[in-house]
Amino acid sequence: MNSELLYEGKAKQIYATEDPEIVIVHYKDDASAYNGIKRAQITNKGVLNNKISSIIYSQLADAGIKTHFIQRLDDRNQLCRKVDVIPIEFIVRNYAAGSMAARLGIEEGTKLPTTIFECCYKNEELDDPIINEHHAVALGLSTYEEMAEVHKIVERINELLIPLFAKLDVILVDFKTEFGRLEDGTLVLSDELSPDTCRLWDVETQDSLDKDRFRRDLGRVGEAYQEILNRLMKL
User: Mind listing the pLDDT tens digit for each residue in 20-78?
Assistant: First the structure.
């Protein structure tokens, strides 16, 4: 990649293009968990996540969700709109799992009577604390109007993704999203939607087909990601 590197995160690199409003997002094979405490390389993870996220973002765009995604360029690279990232993770939970199950003492796998929406301040030094809209406004991260708009969008995304994954015989347990602002202030979905950012369980076996296989040393991480891609490509 000969372009200027603008940013490097745990799983992706962002490169400049000739258009200041367009960037190339490069997917790496790096895997991390527990705020970077656990790290590894998973062969072709970047390739799989690039393809999976491209398919999902295209489906969401067709349903009217505004995203940063323009097109997949090749196995590891996407062309995307450059955004000013809001440093908040917006989490949607349909079933109790992971940190929320442990935090609230709910048995993992319990179907929640209502969808739970959570926000985390993206700050590793503070261990990505849970916040609400009042914190977001007080910290200058967002506005009440913007937080309300994001909430409506993530609710709609959940409504679209649940039946999408159901067609794959997959349960959408939970997922996290990130948003950014285009140069004109338009709010768009950014980052990725993949087994790195979603908990996905097989309907029949309840097996994890996501990053929990890495977090919990379950093995066959790449195979699980490949299975999600294989099912998506049959749509």
Answer: 999 999 999 999 888 778 899 999 999 999 999 999 999 999 999 999 999 999 999 99
Average pLDDT rounded to a whole number, residues 155-162 = 98
Residue showing tokens 């790096």: 30
pTM of the model: 0.95
Tell me which residue of 188, 211, 215 sits closest to 52, measured CA to CA: 211
Residue 45 in contact with residue 29, Cβ under 8 Å?
yes
Identity at 110, one-letter amino acid code:
T
Q: Distance from first CA to last CA of the chain, Å, rounded? A: 32
CB-based contacts of 88, cutoff 8 Å, min separation 6: 119, 120, 121, 122, 131, 136, 141, 142, 178, 179
Q: For the chain, what percent of residues have pLDDT higher than 70?
A: 100
Closest by CA position to 41, among listed 193, 229, 214, 208: 214
Span 128-142, average pLDDT: 98
135: number of Cβ within 10 Å: 15
Q: How far is CA 4 from CA 18, 24, 25, 59, 134, in A?
A: 10, 10, 12, 30, 37
Task: Dump pLDDT digits (tens) for 184-214.
Answer: 999 999 999 999 999 999 999 999 999 999 9
- Confidence (pLDDT) at 1: 65
Helix (H, G, I), strand (E, B) or coil at 167: coil
> Any idea what DSSP says for residue 186?
-
Looking up tokens 């935090």 gives: 103
Is 96:106 a contact under the CB 8 Å cutoff? yes
Q: Hey, what are 140's tokens? A: 């200058």
